[in-house]
Protein backbone atom coordinates (compact mmCIF):
# COMPACT_ATOMS: atom_id res chain seq x y z
CA UNK A 1 0.00 0.00 0.00
CA UNK A 2 1.45 3.35 -0.86
CA UNK A 3 1.40 6.22 1.57
CA UNK A 4 -1.38 8.30 0.07
CA UNK A 5 -3.76 5.31 -0.03
CA UNK A 6 -2.89 4.65 3.59
CA UNK A 7 -3.62 8.27 4.46
CA UNK A 8 -7.01 8.20 2.74
CA UNK A 9 -7.92 4.97 4.53
CA UNK A 10 -6.95 6.38 7.88
CA UNK A 11 -8.97 9.47 7.17
CA UNK A 12 -12.05 7.38 6.33
CA UNK A 13 -11.68 5.32 9.49
CA UNK A 14 -11.42 8.52 11.49
CA UNK A 15 -14.66 9.89 10.00
CA UNK A 16 -16.42 6.61 10.69
CA UNK A 17 -15.27 6.49 14.30
CA UNK A 18 -16.24 10.11 14.98
CA UNK A 19 -19.69 9.63 13.46
CA UNK A 20 -20.41 6.46 15.37
CA UNK A 21 -19.40 7.96 18.69
CA UNK A 22 -21.46 11.09 17.98
CA UNK A 23 -24.52 8.99 17.15
CA UNK A 24 -24.15 6.80 20.22
CA UNK A 25 -23.10 9.32 22.78
CA UNK A 26 -24.65 7.55 25.77
CA UNK A 27 -24.95 9.39 29.07
CA UNK A 28 -22.92 8.34 32.11
CA UNK A 29 -24.46 6.05 34.69
CA UNK A 30 -26.98 7.49 37.14
CA UNK A 31 -26.03 6.01 40.49
CA UNK A 32 -25.45 2.40 39.50
CA UNK A 33 -27.92 2.46 36.60
CA UNK A 34 -26.82 2.53 32.96
CA UNK A 35 -28.47 5.22 30.83
CA UNK A 36 -28.55 3.73 27.32
CA UNK A 37 -28.76 5.89 24.20
CA UNK A 38 -31.00 7.73 23.24
CA UNK A 39 -32.09 8.46 26.83
CA UNK A 40 -30.62 11.73 27.93
CA UNK A 41 -29.96 13.03 31.44
CA UNK A 42 -28.12 16.07 30.17
CA UNK A 43 -27.94 18.29 27.09
CA UNK A 44 -24.42 17.01 26.40
CA UNK A 45 -25.26 13.32 26.02
CA UNK A 46 -27.92 11.05 24.59
CA UNK A 47 -30.63 12.60 22.41
CA UNK A 48 -32.29 15.53 24.16
CA UNK A 49 -35.76 14.57 22.92
CA UNK A 50 -35.54 11.50 25.18
CA UNK A 51 -35.13 13.38 28.43
CA UNK A 52 -34.95 11.52 31.74
CA UNK A 53 -33.68 12.83 35.06
CA UNK A 54 -30.95 11.74 37.39
CA UNK A 55 -32.06 12.99 40.80
CA UNK A 56 -29.71 12.09 43.67
CA UNK A 57 -28.51 8.98 41.88
CA UNK A 58 -32.04 7.80 41.02
CA UNK A 59 -33.06 7.70 37.37
CA UNK A 60 -36.54 9.15 36.89
CA UNK A 61 -39.12 9.91 34.21
CA UNK A 62 -41.02 13.22 34.36
CA UNK A 63 -44.71 13.29 33.36
CA UNK A 64 -46.46 16.22 31.69
CA UNK A 65 -48.16 16.75 35.05
CA UNK A 66 -44.79 17.40 36.70
CA UNK A 67 -44.54 14.15 38.66
CA UNK A 68 -41.33 12.08 38.78
CA UNK A 69 -41.56 8.28 38.42
CA UNK A 70 -38.61 6.07 39.23
CA UNK A 71 -37.32 4.09 36.23
CA UNK A 72 -37.14 0.44 37.28
CA UNK A 73 -35.65 -1.08 34.12
CA UNK A 74 -34.72 -0.19 30.56
CA UNK A 75 -34.62 -2.41 27.48
CA UNK A 76 -32.97 -0.29 24.77
CA UNK A 77 -33.19 -3.06 22.16
CA UNK A 78 -36.98 -3.15 22.48
CA UNK A 79 -37.22 0.66 22.96
CA UNK A 80 -38.94 0.17 26.30
CA UNK A 81 -38.61 1.19 29.89
CA UNK A 82 -40.65 0.41 32.98
CA UNK A 83 -41.49 3.07 35.55
CA UNK A 84 -42.73 2.51 39.08
CA UNK A 85 -46.46 2.97 39.65
CA UNK A 86 -47.13 5.78 42.14
CA UNK A 87 -47.36 4.75 45.77
CA UNK A 88 -50.72 4.77 47.47
CA UNK A 89 -50.92 6.89 50.58
CA UNK A 90 -51.34 4.83 53.69
CA UNK A 91 -54.83 4.55 55.21
CA UNK A 92 -56.39 6.39 52.30
CA UNK A 93 -56.86 5.46 48.69
CA UNK A 94 -55.08 8.21 46.82
CA UNK A 95 -52.20 7.71 44.38
CA UNK A 96 -49.23 9.91 45.13
CA UNK A 97 -49.70 11.47 41.65
CA UNK A 98 -53.38 12.26 42.33
CA UNK A 99 -52.83 16.02 42.29
CA UNK A 100 -51.54 15.75 38.71
CA UNK A 101 -54.53 13.49 37.88
CA UNK A 102 -52.42 10.38 37.42
CA UNK A 103 -49.93 9.74 34.66
CA UNK A 104 -50.05 12.01 31.64
CA UNK A 105 -47.43 11.96 28.89
CA UNK A 106 -46.67 14.95 26.69
CA UNK A 107 -47.99 13.98 23.25
CA UNK A 108 -45.17 15.88 21.58
CA UNK A 109 -42.54 13.66 23.15
CA UNK A 110 -41.54 10.29 21.65
CA UNK A 111 -42.90 8.17 24.56
CA UNK A 112 -46.22 6.38 24.99
CA UNK A 113 -47.79 3.80 27.29
CA UNK A 114 -47.37 0.29 25.84
CA UNK A 115 -50.10 -2.29 25.38
CA UNK A 116 -48.56 -4.63 27.96
CA UNK A 117 -50.00 -2.91 31.02
CA UNK A 118 -52.92 -4.21 33.05
CA UNK A 119 -54.14 -1.14 34.90
CA UNK A 120 -56.10 -1.49 38.14
CA UNK A 121 -58.23 1.49 39.09
CA UNK A 122 -59.14 1.71 42.77
CA UNK A 123 -61.81 3.52 44.78
CA UNK A 124 -63.97 4.15 41.75
CA UNK A 125 -67.47 5.64 41.77
CA UNK A 126 -70.42 3.68 40.43
CA UNK A 127 -70.21 5.68 37.19
CA UNK A 128 -67.31 3.40 36.20
CA UNK A 129 -69.62 0.35 36.20
CA UNK A 130 -71.09 1.53 32.92
CA UNK A 131 -67.68 1.56 31.29
CA UNK A 132 -66.21 -1.40 29.42
CA UNK A 133 -63.77 -2.03 32.28
CA UNK A 134 -63.80 -5.23 34.29
CA UNK A 135 -65.20 -4.23 37.69
CA UNK A 136 -66.50 -7.70 38.60
CA UNK A 137 -65.88 -9.40 41.92
CA UNK A 138 -63.20 -11.56 40.30
CA UNK A 139 -61.34 -8.65 38.70
CA UNK A 140 -57.58 -8.78 39.32
CA UNK A 141 -57.89 -5.56 41.32
CA UNK A 142 -59.73 -7.47 44.10
CA UNK A 143 -56.59 -9.48 44.84
CA UNK A 144 -54.59 -6.28 44.97
CA UNK A 145 -57.10 -4.56 47.27
CA UNK A 146 -57.39 -7.44 49.67
CA UNK A 147 -53.78 -8.56 49.85
CA UNK A 148 -51.64 -5.47 49.42
CA UNK A 149 -52.76 -3.66 52.62
CA UNK A 150 -53.63 -0.18 51.38
CA UNK A 151 -56.50 2.11 52.32
CA UNK A 152 -58.25 0.89 49.18
CA UNK A 153 -59.66 -2.26 50.71
CA UNK A 154 -63.35 -2.83 49.90
CA UNK A 155 -63.63 0.07 47.48
CA UNK A 156 -65.08 -0.42 44.01
CA UNK A 157 -62.25 -1.30 41.65
CA UNK A 158 -61.81 -2.23 38.01
CA UNK A 159 -59.07 -3.50 35.75
CA UNK A 160 -58.39 -3.27 32.04
CA UNK A 161 -55.65 -4.06 29.59
CA UNK A 162 -54.29 -0.80 28.24
CA UNK A 163 -54.70 -1.74 24.58
CA UNK A 164 -54.45 0.24 21.38
CA UNK A 165 -58.15 1.24 21.47
CA UNK A 166 -57.34 3.66 24.29
CA UNK A 167 -55.27 6.75 24.64
CA UNK A 168 -51.65 5.73 25.05
CA UNK A 169 -50.71 8.97 26.82
CA UNK A 170 -52.73 8.86 30.02
CA UNK A 171 -53.81 6.85 33.06
CA UNK A 172 -56.29 9.12 34.76
CA UNK A 173 -57.40 9.39 38.38
CA UNK A 174 -59.71 12.04 39.84
CA UNK A 175 -62.36 12.57 42.50
CA UNK A 176 -65.66 11.27 41.14
CA UNK A 177 -63.81 8.72 38.98
CA UNK A 178 -61.17 6.55 40.63
CA UNK A 179 -58.66 7.99 43.10
CA UNK A 180 -55.82 5.47 42.91
CA UNK A 181 -54.29 2.98 40.51
CA UNK A 182 -51.55 0.50 40.02
CA UNK A 183 -50.28 -1.35 36.96
CA UNK A 184 -48.78 -4.75 36.21
CA UNK A 185 -46.65 -5.51 33.14
CA UNK A 186 -47.52 -8.69 31.21
CA UNK A 187 -49.99 -9.96 33.79
CA UNK A 188 -50.67 -13.66 33.30
CA UNK A 189 -54.15 -14.90 34.22
CA UNK A 190 -54.16 -17.32 37.11
CA UNK A 191 -51.08 -15.87 38.78
CA UNK A 192 -51.05 -14.40 42.24
CA UNK A 193 -50.53 -10.76 43.27
CA UNK A 194 -47.14 -11.51 44.87
CA UNK A 195 -45.65 -12.70 41.58
CA UNK A 196 -46.84 -9.71 39.56
CA UNK A 197 -44.40 -7.37 37.89
CA UNK A 198 -45.65 -4.01 39.16
CA UNK A 199 -44.79 -1.22 36.77
CA UNK A 200 -45.93 0.89 33.86
CA UNK A 201 -44.21 -0.01 30.62
CA UNK A 202 -43.48 2.90 28.29
CA UNK A 203 -42.07 2.64 24.79
CA UNK A 204 -40.30 5.19 22.68
CA UNK A 205 -40.09 5.88 18.98
CA UNK A 206 -36.61 4.72 17.90
CA UNK A 207 -34.15 7.55 17.36
CA UNK A 208 -33.19 7.53 13.67
C1 LIG B 1 -62.54 7.48 47.57
O1 LIG B 1 -62.85 8.55 46.68
C2 LIG B 1 -63.75 9.52 47.18
C3 LIG B 1 -63.94 10.57 46.06
O2 LIG B 1 -64.41 9.96 44.85
C4 LIG B 1 -63.20 10.15 48.44
O3 LIG B 1 -64.14 11.04 48.97
C5 LIG B 1 -62.86 9.07 49.46
O4 LIG B 1 -62.21 9.65 50.57
C6 LIG B 1 -61.92 8.02 48.84
N1 LIG B 1 -61.71 6.92 49.78
C7 LIG B 1 -60.53 6.68 50.36
C8 LIG B 1 -60.48 5.48 51.27
O5 LIG B 1 -59.53 7.34 50.16
C1 LIG C 1 -62.99 -10.08 34.69
O1 LIG C 1 -61.68 -10.56 34.93
C2 LIG C 1 -61.62 -11.84 35.53
C3 LIG C 1 -60.15 -12.13 35.80
O2 LIG C 1 -59.42 -12.14 34.60
C4 LIG C 1 -62.25 -12.86 34.59
O3 LIG C 1 -62.24 -14.14 35.20
C5 LIG C 1 -63.70 -12.45 34.29
O4 LIG C 1 -64.25 -13.32 33.33
C6 LIG C 1 -63.75 -11.02 33.76
N1 LIG C 1 -65.12 -10.60 33.67
C7 LIG C 1 -65.61 -9.94 32.63
C8 LIG C 1 -67.05 -9.50 32.73
O5 LIG C 1 -64.95 -9.71 31.63
C1 LIG D 1 -46.58 3.88 20.75
O1 LIG D 1 -45.33 4.11 20.13
C2 LIG D 1 -44.83 3.01 19.38
C3 LIG D 1 -43.43 3.36 18.90
O2 LIG D 1 -43.47 4.50 18.10
C4 LIG D 1 -45.79 2.71 18.23
O3 LIG D 1 -45.32 1.62 17.49
C5 LIG D 1 -47.16 2.39 18.81
O4 LIG D 1 -48.09 2.20 17.78
C6 LIG D 1 -47.64 3.51 19.73
N1 LIG D 1 -48.83 3.02 20.39
C7 LIG D 1 -49.96 3.68 20.37
C8 LIG D 1 -51.11 3.00 21.03
O5 LIG D 1 -50.06 4.79 19.86
TrEMBL record:
A GO CC term attached to the entry: membrane
Superkingdom per UniProt: Eukaryota
Signal peptide from the UniProt entry: 1-22
Coiled-coil portions: none
Domain Wall-associated receptor kinase galacturonan-binding: 27-83
Membrane topology: Single-pass membrane protein
Name of the featured protein: Wall-associated receptor kinase galacturonan-binding domain-containing protein
GO molecular function annotation: polysaccharide binding
Pfam families on file: GUB_WAK_bind
Amino acid sequence: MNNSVRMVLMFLVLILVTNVSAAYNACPKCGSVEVPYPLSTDDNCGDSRYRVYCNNGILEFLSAGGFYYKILSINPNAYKLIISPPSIQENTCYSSDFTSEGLRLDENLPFNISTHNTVMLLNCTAALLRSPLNCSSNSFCRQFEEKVGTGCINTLCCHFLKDSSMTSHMIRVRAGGCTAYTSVVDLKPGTSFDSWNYGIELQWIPAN
